[in-house]
Amino acid sequence: MGVLGVNIKDSDSFAYVYGSFFDLYNNGASPEYACSEVKESLSEYFNDYEDSNNSWLALAYAQWEIKSLEQSVYEKVLTIVESGSDLKLWEELGASKDDIKNRKIALKSFLEEISREKKTKKRRKTPKHDFRANKLVELVAPDKQKIFTVTEEFSDGKYIHTSALMMWSSGGVSVFYFSKEGTQVSAEWNGSQKLIVTTENGIEFSKKDDAAFYCGDKVGVAYLCG
Length: 226
What we know:
By secondary structure, the protein is of the alpha+beta class. The protein has two domains: 8-115, no CATH class; 131-225, no CATH class. It has helices at 12-26, 31-41, 43-47, 52-65, 71-83, 85-92, 97-115; strands at 131-140, 146-155, 158-168, 171-178, 185-189, 195-199, 213-214, 217-218, 222-225. Helix 1 packs across helix 2, helix 4 crosses helix 5 and helix 5 (71-83) packs antiparallel against helix 7 (97-115). The N and C termini lie far apart (59 Å). The model is unreliable at 208-219 (pLDDT under 50).
């Protein structure tokens, strides 16, 4: 049992169970599903002698914050506090008398808090998506005025598409894109106004020739299958 202090939220097991519940809830899970999934996936915490109490306290607090505290979970916490089992555990683990005294106060305060209905429900947080770009080509034009890049783009580890951009100092424009992960792509400049892109057979590009203008330059694509 990793414990940082006497407060209810100070243990590693509390933080892990609480965080796991809201990872599910914030991604759209119902309170009932999040509860069931946490108890199943983290069963070793709920069944462990040292971590069990903090796990139930964490689950109760998470449910209370979203105004979905189940009676069975509340009664489990009630038993933990009123039976003195948590204080006995602290004593067995060698806690000082002052720590046990302060832990008793913290438990009583926690029980009083979750015994009152929360005024406002904690809102779901929109999960942050992990965006990653794997650069396949980065080629500066001979005139040093623009750069051609090709990147594979991923969101939360899932492939989105491969896109090509032409970038000037003041901005850029999309040249083409396609959807096939791991495709080999290369490019070379033939002067500063002509770019030859080479890729494998079978790639279907999406592009708009009329839209690829910027800073007086026109971007065209020649497809050489290799």
